[in-house]
Amino acid sequence: MLFAYSALTRDGAVFKGKGHFENIQALMDTLSSQDFILLRYKEKRFFVLDEMEKLFQPKVVRMDIVEFCDALSTLIGSGLPLLESIESIKDTIRNKRLKKALEQVIQKIAGGESLSASFAQDSSVFPRMLVFFCNIGEETGTIQEALKNTAEHLKKLDDIVSQTKRALIYPAFVISAMGAVTVFWLYFVLPRLVETFNEMDVVLPEITRKLVYFVRLSEQNWFLFPLSVIALACTIFLMKKNERTHLLLSRLYFRIPIAGELIKYSNLTLFFSNLSLMLHSGVTITKCFEVLGTTMRNPAFRDVIHGIKKSTGTGDSLLSAFSQTRFFDAITLRMVSVGESTGTLDQRMSYLADTYQEKTSRFVDIMGKMIEPIVMALSGGLFVFIVISLIGPVYDLISQLGGG
Q: What kind and span of H or E run contains 174?
């Protein structure tokens, strides 16, 4: 049941809140564990409105979780109890969705659940890696370090995504502008020019006549364009629902010119970063690959991880398992070999994570510089096409008038 309530805090202030509880006794027990005194409460029966409200609340982004983990790690390191630390952070949170999620976490912890189990109750807000590392921290007594490592990992992930988006902003803007200009010329300018030329008996070039025919045909069958988009979207959706076709699509992603390399480097960065953190935290190599197999989003990369896990499970060395996938380059295999033989595998994985992150950053910069001339060439080609097909007849008309 959903309750709205008012409670008296230890310093005499009135605290208002709402949350889901099994009954009024559960609400009183939760408040009592926080040294709060229940003043009044009201059962909210129209909980559908609260569920609809969640749809319009801002999404919790990675940096919100990064800031939360950093702050919680600092407060716990200063000696403040876990529950008080989360309550202090909650009061400073501006994101309503995250703030409500933290209220639920406080209730769960006050009810006797662990931090990791409380986070796991809301997977839409708290990422799986946060739950996993908190679980490790609780078992090893290093919750502060676990929160700090999670913040660093999510910050690295956010940097990779941000770099990729920055590289694609310029070409996306130019291509969108080119498309808008093309549509404007074809469907607004061209019909009026053609009408004028026909009235003045101007002979149109062959390319212009074909262009006019295409525009008329597309206007008559305009419904085919949205149907094609819907059909393509449905096809991709169904292919992603099927495991085999989704795996095939994911493998094709790595073969896309330029972008495929970027996808591979970013996945390798996340893979080795996660692997290094887990090994450093004392997680067994088998458990590492088990977790990575569920946290990595790319099905093709998950298939590579499954192959490594299967090989190591049959007694093969880590180097042999990596080699059999035929996915990793010679430098990576060399680092795995050195780490495995010297017992410094977590350090070697950390080195590979930094290396691939640097490659990703450098590749994003290079890709941005490579895309610019390509986009400019396409823009120039479009301009030439417009001049030949649309502006050319105008010059012919001017020449005829001048000759007359």
A: helix 143-184
